[in-house]
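Journal club prep, shared notes

We agreed each person brings one worked example of a sequence with its structure written out as tokens. Mine is Bifunctional ADP-dependent NAD(P)H-hydrate dehydratase/NAD(P)H-hydrate epimerase. I'm keeping it raw so we can talk through how to read the token line rather than staring at a rendered picture. Sequence first:
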Amino acid sequence: MLADADSLQVQLNWASCIVIGPGLGQDSWSSALLNQVLDYVTKHPKPILLDADALNLLATCRTTLPCQCILTPHPGEAARLLGCKIQDVENNRYQALSQL
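Then the structure, token by token:
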């Protein structure tokens, strides 16, 4: 866990839902924090919304997402997650959504 794991645990226990991604960054600290949050939500189910840098981090490592997980990618993030071109997503958004 991160250095301030107790504080993170307290905040996650307090929250009724979790949003992670905007401003998170994509360094090793950010990746570790995302993994901790995903681990927490797996053990303590809560709705979680993943956006921005959380999606970029997910695109670099395949992981199983917890239940009650919402992804909000724009076409560029969706393309990174799917390993395709932005134009592929733009040409068939319904297919991209199904694949995500």
